[in-house]
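The step that takes the researchers longest sounds almost clerical: writing a folded protein down as plain text. Below is the pair of lines this work produces for a single protein:

——
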Amino acid sequence: MSLPRNPAGVDAALVPALALALACGAWCEAVAQEPEVLPIDLTTALALADERNLDIAIYIERIAEASARVAQARTLAVPTLRAGARRDRHTGNIQETGGQVLDADRASQFTGIEAGLSINIADAVFAPLVARQNRAAVAAASTANRHLVLLDVARAYLTLLESREETGIAQGALDRAVDLARLTADYAEAGEGLLADAEMAAVQPLLWEQRRLIAVERTEAAAAELARLLHLDPGVALEPLENGIPALAIFSGDEDVEELVARALLDRPEAEQYDALVAAAEDDLNAQRYRLFIPSVSLDYGVGRFGGGPGSSIRNSDDRDDLMLSLSWQFDNFGFGHRARTDEKRAQLRQVSLERDQLRDGIAAEVREGHAQVRSFARQLELVQSAVARAEQAYRLNRERIFDQQALPLEALQAMQTLAAAELADLAARVGHALAEVRLHTVLGNPIDSEAP
């Protein structure tokens, strides 16, 4: 920031004060723009997902919608009540009961209450059953959606931890590369090494600085994704409380796979959802199948005062009540339309039953795949942890040889690269193992905020 020129008549002693004021203003503005920091761990992230995630909130409203449809279906056998007045004014020809046509001028009026009930008994019986099964399917789908949301939150949080730790690994490799480049340059300047070696060593800090910048960008992207899932203000900066990838230890890898598959088929909310959809399709088919034999009932009753007279006058008003009851059977298109709709409902039932079988096959495959991943990453952890220990030892020994003047600095380059690669492999294995465990836990039908069975 540049200071304004000192105008004529202004005391030079005021310039330092003005500079201090401008500096304070810039500092205060920077402080005001600092984002709010929210410390967070995995437990907190999962709790916030239940409270704030929009997908979970949308499914809650879908359950409310399905419940309203159940209430609507239950009212199909409830009469409709109408209260008010009805006036009829007629001018012109009208036919009497005997067949004679008369030129009439008359008016009539009814004031009172009418109750009408028109019931398709098949709908009144089966529609609530279908609606209840559909609501159960929506509730199960909501549970499945919650499990997936929690899995996405856990994945985003672990990605945030991974990218932050990757930044640290890249920074450590960068520090070692800078040190190695300095030593190689010193040897070349002293005539004890080649300039080509110095140039080769100088490349490594540039590459690792690039890797560090990529990790920083991934950290910011992971934080933004986690904030989106938790429906947080975009200006909130998430600060994980955990320094490393948590060791969840949900599975040992020695579990019986067939037992896990059987457990998943019982506990997965998607299986419950399709069981409800199949039951709804069966009730819908039964309603269509028996509709031909079950009558519709119509009952109308009105009570009030009725009067009328010639012209527009209303006279002779007195009490009146009417009751009409009718039963009817309807054969659409001589029954052919009914048969076609029955075949349609039967095909829908077969379709949803096949989809349920398809889901069961998918669940079994997911369990087997998830269990194989847990076992694989558990074995990988053992390998990469040993690799990191050996790589650290190799790098230390190479450093000692350089300072004992038994080797050139460039000879430590491979050891430095091997150590960084081992550390990154160890990080990938720890993240992969944690993700494999939470995925398998979810595949078995459990939200990841629950205890392992």
User: Anything to note?
Assistant: The chain has one domain: 35-84+120-295+334-443. The longest strand covers residues 101-120. The beta strands are 36-40, 80-95, 101-120, 236-240, 296-310, 315-328. DSSP finds nine helices and six strands in the chain.
